[in-house]
Amino acid sequence: MSGLEVRDVSVAFDQTRALDDVSLEVGTGRILAVLGPSGCGKSTLLRVIAGLQQPDRGRVLFDGQDITRVPTHRRGFALMFQDGQLFDHLSVGANVAYPQRRQGVSRRDANARADELLDVVGLAGFARRSPRTLSGGQQQRVALARALAAEPRLLLLDEPLSALDRDLRERLAVDLRQILTATGTTALLVTHDHGEAFTLADDAVLLRAGRVVQHGAVADLWRDPVDEDAARFLGYRTVLTGEPAIVVRRVLGVAGDGPVALRRGALRVSSGAGQLTGIAGRSAYGADEVTVEVDVPGLGGLPVAADVAPPPGASVGIDVLPAQVALLTVHRTAT
Ligand SMILES: Nc1ncnc2c1ncn2[C@@H]1O[C@H](COP(=O)(O)OP(=O)(O)OP(=O)(O)O)[C@@H](O)[C@H]1O
Fold first, then answer.
1. Which residue ranges run through the membrane (predicted)?
2. CB atoms within 10 A of CB 121
3. Cα-based torsion angle of the residue sequence 64, 69, 70, 73 in order, rounded to the nearest 10 degrees
4. Residue 91: which domain range?
5. What confidence tens digit (pLDDT) does each residue in 221-263 have?
6. pLDDT attached to residue 299
7. DSSP E strands, the chain
8. 181 and 313 housed in the same domain
9. How far apart are CA 284 and CA 305, in angstroms?
10. Is the model's pTM score more than 0.90?
11. 55 C-alpha vs ligand 1 centroid, how far in Å?
């Protein structure tokens, strides 16, 4: 196949199995997110792909060629880290021109290309500035321009946005996706942030304790997490089991008795009678809306979204939004 293939890769450090039989693919021009909690093996996987860590078993291929033993600098990949790692003593333009200068491109041509790339990342006119005078988000854009300057056949991104605050992170994730797709860049991103993965990537791999537990299009992971832990990790807030799960399934008209995962907006105070009813408890004010704890007979206390906090003790109707609900088949996947 064309693009990256990781086949059955395992890495152990002393007693720790950092990666256990990991396989994945990134087709040319696609963006894959490797998603998982701290310590699940993301960085180790990135290091194996970059050639900074030899796997104990398994192989790395690019465009069908085995590159497992090819040294890092011969792989034609670029790496972009969390903190950008710009050279402070060079101007922004010289930072971006650096990879091409190293490849022997003339100063004039490398600078011209750097100007083009700064334009692509929304920083036209910044070439003469010092990186020290830029905001965190601007520095990450320069780091991206520099990573793209080498025209890598694969761009590896290690938590590229996690050093930024939330607002900026969300905006930059959208821009980053647009830049990567516009430049046709094949990319692999590691992150613990499902929002970042969903915004940026076409496909995602969920890692847990060094093993792949789910691999698919981001839309499929968003809709159908493989188990309860995956659901929680992918942004579902509540997982109901037993009788409460059956009640919600009944409301949605679906059979089965597996767990039901609810996103934050899955339950809403209804303007009408609602599909469920309960008694309002305490309300909490969030950034965008109010969350009311509603005691529903048979289900217990559930967080329900509302536009306006109902008075405690009031009877409220609740709508169940099917698009915000995942029907799980298993509790936990054996790993
Ligand atoms: N050089 C090493 N020596 C010993 N153990 C290591 C080494 N590198 C990683 N590990 C262990 O391997 C496991 C996976 O680590 P890794 O850094 O790949 O996880 P991660 O998902 O990137 O975590 P984080 O998100 O916290 O960076 C962890 O249990 C870690 O402690």
1. none
2. 22
3. 130
4. 3-229
5. 999 999 999 999 999 999 999 888 998 999 999 988 899 999 9
6. 83
7. 3-13, 16-27, 31-35, 57-62, 65-66, 77-80, 154-158, 187-191, 203-208, 211-217, 238-240, 260-262, 267-269, 276-285, 290-296, 300-306, 315-320, 325-327
8. no
9. 10
10. no
11. 14
Tell me what ipTM this predicted complex has.
Answer: 0.94
Ligand 1 atom, smallest distance to 47 CA: 18
Q: The tokens of 77 are what? A: 């990949």
Tell which one of 6, 9, 11, 13 to mutate to probe ligand 1, the residue whose CB is within 8 A of the most ligand atoms: 13
Mutation probe of ligand 1 site: the residue of 11, 44, 52, 233 with most atoms within 8 A of C-beta: 44
Decide if 304 is inside a domain: yes
Q: Is the same domain home to 203 and 115?
A: yes
- Per-residue pLDDT tens over the stretch 1-11: 899 999 999 99
**For residues 266, 267, 270 and 275, what is the CA-based torsion angle, rounded to 10 degrees?**
100
The reply to whether 53 and 178 lie within a common domain is yes
